[in-house]
Amino acid sequence: MSIPELPVTLADVAAARSRIAGIAVATPVIPAMPLPGAGRYWLKLENLQPTGSFKVRGAASRLGTLDPAALERGVVTASTGNHGRAVAHVAAARGVPATICVSVHVPPGKVAALRATGCEVIVGGDSQADALVTADTLVEQRGMTLVHPFDDPQVIAGQGTIGLEILEQVPATTTVVIPLSGGGLAAGIAVAVKATRPDVRVVGVAMERAAVMAASLAAGRPVELPEEPTLADSLQGGIGRTNATTFPIVRALVDEVVLLCEQEIWDGMRFAFDQHRLILEGGAAVGIAAVLAGHLDVAADQDVVLICSGANAEVEHIIALAQGRATPPA
Length: 330
Ligand SMILES: *Cc1c(COP(=O)(O)O)cnc(C)c1O
Known about the structure:
CATH topology of the largest domain: Rossmann fold
Bound molecules: pyridoxal-5'-phosphate
Number of helices: 13
Largest sheet: 6 strands, mixed
Structural class: alpha/beta
């Protein structure tokens, strides 16, 4: 297979690696405790990043491309989850002003946690979409730079540095299994891995509930779906009607997409906790979950790397894991 012309290249990923050094860490890969199937399974522990998710790679990569004047005007985003935390953290580490726009429905605890990093939080509007409009206004009025959670070549290149590390840590890798939402993580890793190892199989995993990327791939264009509550809340949300970057890359390079029900996701979180004493949020346990549920066809002598993308599970879920609850909390 020849790699088609895509908006992010291996050279972009390699360049991002030096920009993220000192902010993101090269995370360990550990052998997984026994899982079903004939392969050897490895866990790539992105839950160990500062702020508890890989999103710090993309944020550090993007901020690292800004010139001094742009850094002085600051950065803005509209995410309350792992991306917002990562942007706030990277901005604080570099002494750059950051503004996070959130809707009025975001819990006060989350707003307080963001403010504690030293960023400005603007609360307003009824939805995430409204918060994004506020962010766009700041781009126009204050000349701030919008740091998109996924649809940005430099963000994707930052996430792709995971792929470079995997090829060094597990040179025999045959399959990489990646949580999939907006597609920045999957696109970046796929570009990095397939540039030198086009034979490596790249699998995306998401929840059945409002799997927007999967629906968009099926439709051949970005589609929108109403959000549904899920344990994999970090995989919620759309890919953007005007998606310019992750959709074409995911379409070209991701070989298959697996979708999971809530029980399967919970079983993945339980495996991580029971077998490894690892706390993974639902969206980060979907790789383990896909293997446990038998959705991945793995031949003997395959080396399968499961990306464990984040640690930021709800405290109630952590308590339920420690209590050994077999079914997902409502
Ligand atoms: C953002 C996120 C994802 C999905 O990444 P995309 O680039 O949106 O596909 C997966 N896991 C965790 C923990 C995340 O925060």
